[in-house]
Amino acid sequence: ETRATKVPVTIQCGVRKTDIIVDQTLPLAAGEAFRTIGSVQLDGGVETVITVSNTGTAGFVILDALQLIESNH
Question: Is this prediction's pTM over 0.85?
Answer without folding.
Answer: yes
